């Protein structure tokens, strides 16, 4: 399978800094598009995940 590379912010440990990582994503199909994100916000549920308020969240996780 052919993959594209993308950058993602990854939470590896609760309460620690997010890490920018290169990740592989599958090559797009004809029905998909690739969107370049230039800025994003933080959702309240992301903050809860970051703090480790739900220990069922598997790490690492992309936020």
UniProtKB/TrEMBL annotation:
Keyword Membrane: no
Keyword Oxidoreductase: yes
Stretches assigned to the Alcohol dehydrogenase-like N-terminal domain: 31-63
Keywords: Oxidoreductase
One function term, GO molecular function aspect: oxidoreductase activity
InterPro entries per UniProt: ADH-like_N (IPR013154), GroES-like_sf (IPR011032), Zn_alcohol_dh (IPR050129)
Cross-referenced Gene3D superfamilies: Medium-chain alcohol dehydrogenases, catalytic domain
Protein name: Alcohol dehydrogenase-like N-terminal domain-containing protein
Species for this entry: marine sediment metagenome
